[in-house]
Amino acid sequence: MLKRIFLSDKEILKRIKNNDRTILGELFVAYEKPVTGFIRKNGGDKADAEDILQETIIALWQNVNNGRYQASAKLSTYIFAIAKNKWLAESRRRNKLDFDLEKAGEQLHHENGLKETLERETGSIVADALARLDFPCKDLLLLFYFEERKMNEIASILGFANSDVAKAKKYQCKKALQKILEKTFIENKKQTK
Amino acid sequence: MNMNINAEYIRKNDWPEKYLLGHLDTEQIKAYEKYLENDPQAREELEQERRMIEGIRTAGSHDMKREIQRQVASLRNPKTDWTFIYKAAAVLFVLVLVPSVIYYQNFTSSPAQAEKEQLLRHRDAPSPDFTEETRKEAPEYADDKDETIGTTVEKEKQSVQKRSDQPAVRQKKEAAQAATIKSDVSISPQQSIASGNAGAGHNSEPGISEAPPDILNEAEEYAPAELNDSQRRRASVRMEPKSLDALKNMTLSQAEQQKVVQFNENGKELKILFIDDPAVRITADSLKLQTYGSEKSIFIRLWLPRELFSASKEDVQAEISGTDITITFFKKHSFKFKSDPSEKFARKVK
């Protein structure tokens, strides 16, 4: 039997700010029941609920770290509002899924290498390229672009002397990622021929 | 404010990224968007930047979703903490092993323990070589095998101590000790010795001494009267002195059938105490022994089956070669051992 996890708002925010990722699973367990109940009542199933709750937790993580979150209400209210909005957006998306897919297909038009690579398999190719970067480039780029943290926070998390060092390192890492992506495109191009 | 920007300025200040992340102010956004309208190359660079950032975010999102799933699975099915179990096992191992080693070192080699083990081993399969007397004695060991050894020994010690404290008994004990010391006869240094007659009271032969009957009778006074023969023997064995000094003063006053073989070799004194042990079979592959010694003196106690214990003078030979000692009975039963305190058994060599 899974025991219920009680977390105070203060503790949650503090742990997210401190990049304590062990809070992720605890948040999921803590909010699983109400979110699942809401989504089931509104036409979703358990898998939908899990997916929405995961995205909600990610959104919370990003918003706390990039400063968009303002503690004007209880955190549970904020989390539930995100989950609700995400499920409504997902419901709308599903209702016009065919139309969107057709529209997206028309947009695929390739002109140069990097553009073509990124358009075809953006997520997986970039993920592979990130994995090939030396430490701490992947972490640094994720902290900056995905979590949208400030440079001084990144410097603190990754142990850089200051934000300028982190900024210089970020520039190097970004260039390295672009290089890998370009190389990937060239290889894909050869295979296509 | 009319900003004058060009491709180099935009690239140098990383405007595509700042534009996509919302880090440009209103004026900069307007200027950049105006620039994009007139420069297809700049639009392409912005698109590449957008797709790369989108890819990083997608990858980050997938990573975090996997992390959530992993943590939830872990919370729902908590793994056994093997580290804790290993640590607990290690502590338990040490707690069990250390006392076991201490026990083994200090208690398993004791005469009482070894005697009991031998008794139990022989009880199930009595030797055909046993004499009738031996057969009668064995069940006595078996009958009291459940008796707590520690309690018995304590009782026996207290009883002996109580009796020894009586003035009359103390005098008899001293007389018995004096008589026993006198009966020990040193033999000339030889590599091979012949033992004397094992019969009671025959101490005229050099090499083997045995307490005369009167001394043995006196010794009966020191053993608890309420014990039977086997218990008295075991009690006497357990009460044997452990220290070298105590062993030097060892007497035959403990109701034990014992013989002492004593001789000197290159200024080194060797004293072998044969002990009659009816629980030992003549076919035994090894004989229990204890050795104590210093550079000048070696004391050995050897537990023998009755058949060997009763050997006559001509039937026993002892040979010394360095630290190796070989005792041969009837020119047939040879047992070899080292004069080393760690040596617990004399092994049969033929």
Describe the structure concisely:
Chain A contains nine helices and no strands. Chain A has 193 residues and is mainly α.
Q: Can you walk through the features of this model?
A:
The complex is a heterodimer of chains A (193) and B (350). With 193 residues, chain A is mainly alpha-helical. Chain A has helices spanning 9-17, 23-41, 46-66, 75-95, 97-107, 113-131, 137-146, 151-158, 163-192. Chain A has 2 domains: 9-88, Orthogonal Bundle (Rna Polymerase Sigma Factor, Chain: A), CATH 1.10.1740; 114-192, Arc Repressor Mutant, subunit A. Chain A contains 9 helices and no strands. In chain A, helix 2 (23-41) packs across helix 4, helix 3 (46-66) packs across helix 4 and helix 8 crosses helix 9. In chain A, 30% of the residues are buried. Chain B has 350 residues and is an alpha+beta fold. In chain B, strands 1-2-3-5-4-9-8-7-6 form a 9-stranded mixed β-sheet. In chain B, helix 3 crosses helix 4, helix 6 (111-123) crosses helix 7 and helix 9 packs antiparallel against helix 10. Chain B starts with 6 loop residues before the first helix and ends with a strand. In chain B, 29% of the residues are buried. Residues 124-131, 138-153, 178-227, 235-244 and 247-255 of chain B have low confidence and may be disordered. The A-B interface holds A 2, 5, 21-22, 24-26, 28-29, 54-55, 57-58, 61, 111-112, 114-115, 118-119, 122-123, 125-127, 130, 141-142, 145-148, 177-178, 181 and B 21, 44, 47-48, 51-65, 67-72, 74-76.
Distance between the termini of chain B: 116 Å
Compute the number of helices of chain B: 13
Instruction: Tell me the CATH topology of the largest domain in chain A.
Output: Rna Polymerase Sigma Factor, Chain: A
Count of DSSP-assigned helices of chain A? 9
**Reported CATH architecture of the largest domain in chain A:** Orthogonal Bundle
Low-confidence stretches of chain B: 124-131, 138-153, 178-227, 235-244, 247-255
Question: Could you tell me the radius of gyration of chain A in angstroms?
Answer: 20 Å
Mean pLDDT of chain A: 85
- Strand count, sense and closure of the main sheet of chain B? 9 strands, mixed
Return the structural class of chain A.
mainly alpha
Percentage of residues in helical conformation of chain A: over 70%
**Secondary-structure element string of chain A:** HHHHHHHHH
* Largest interface in this structure: A-B, 35 and 28 residues
- How much of the sequence lies in strands of chain B comes to 15-25%
Q: Please compute the radius of gyration of chain B using only Cα atoms.
A: 44 Å
**Count of spatially separate domains of chain A:** 2
CATH superfamily of the largest domain in chain A: RNA polymerase sigma factor, region 2, helix turn helix motif
